[in-house]
Amino acid sequence: MKTLTIVIPTYHSESSVPFLVDRLNQFNQVPGAPDFQVFFIDDASTDQTSEILLKTKKQFDFRLFKMLKNQGQHTATAFGIGLADTPFIATIDDDLQHDPFELIHMLAAQKESNADLIYGIYKQKEHSNFRNFGSFLLKRIFKLMRHDYKDVTSFRLFKADIGHAFKHLQNKVIFLDFELQQLARKKDVCIVEHAERKEGKSSYSMFGLMKFATRILLFHSGFPLRFISRLGLIIAVICFILGIYFIYAKIIHNAPIGFTSIIVSIFFSTGLVLFSLGIIGEYIRKLWINSSSLTPIQIQEIHEVE
């Protein structure tokens, strides 16, 4: 029985997959390397990614799946995780910025700590400055929301128990690490090398990163609702204090109330409405999470070697 399943989502990676397969072939020959299999999940690429993967000579067991419709990296990865039948599962990117050889160190770190989930964190990131800044900003936002994702990367190693939660996956996964963090009882990190991208460019454009961050905030956070409710409460409190002041001025100094008092009253009622909408929205959000049923994921298995 294999020890490790390596799940690799691919998308428009025809220029990089030959290098990736070659590196995996080398990894398979290294003394002390785990007995592994590889699941390639092609996220409905429109180039020759799948065809090149099939033609490239491989010295390891692999299975190749192709999505009938593009679902996103996190859903593709989650699907592959759900298929794994080994004691340990790892996820790496398809651009060789994650060196498979580092999995030896991560397995050693897991054996030492007995953690359910190990993240490979980088000595030095080799992403573009824009992507590094976007990741930093997103993690800071999550920290303000009391979600600590500072050590989260797509280089992961975890026990099969966590992977079982993704078997028979039916719904899209917006943010895989949110799910993993909920499932893992003990987490740890392992310092790994982060290489420069071998070929091509990242599929994460500025618009793509912003869209991904927005979806996380909306689907895995109550931040917008809490912001609205807190803003409404602050407005209501300020306007209530101003209302008390105007009443005091009218009673003590017989000051004319006039137009200002009307504006204060409107803002006070608006603040209460926003506060109420935030609370109602939070309840609706929780109900939606518990009962949401999205379109089933369709997969076409292309090739299998065992």
Give your account of this protein's structure.
This protein has an eight-stranded mixed beta sheet with strand order 7-5-6-4-1-2-3-8, with helices on both faces. The protein has ten helices and eight strands. The model has no long low-confidence stretch (mean pLDDT 79). It has helices at residues 17-29, 49-55, 73-83, 103-113, 129-144, 160-163, 176-183, 206-219, 223-253, 258-291; strands at residues 4-10, 36-42, 61-67, 88-91, 117-122, 156-159, 187-192, 299-305. The chain has 306 residues and is α/β, with parallel strands linked by helices. The chain has two domains: 4-221, Spore Coat Polysaccharide Biosynthesis Protein SpsA, Chain A (Alpha-Beta Complex); 223-291.
Low-confidence stretches: none
Overall form: elongated
Structural class call reads alpha/beta
In which range does the helix fraction lie?
A: 40-55%
Give the strand tally: 8
Quaternary state of this entry equals single chain
- CATH class type of the largest domain: Alpha Beta
The number of helical runs is: 10
Q: Tell me the count of domains.
A: 2
* CATH structural fold name of the largest domain: Spore Coat Polysaccharide Biosynthesis Protein SpsA, Chain A
- Name the CATH architecture of the largest domain: Alpha-Beta Complex
Strand order of the largest sheet: 7-5-6-4-1-2-3-8
Biggest beta-sheet profile: 8 strands, mixed
Give the amount of beta strand, in percent. 15-25%
Order of helices and strands: EHEHEHEHEHEHHEHHHE
Spatial separation of the terminal alpha carbons: 11 Å
- CATH homologous superfamily heading of the largest domain: Spore Coat Polysaccharide Biosynthesis Protein SpsA, Chain A
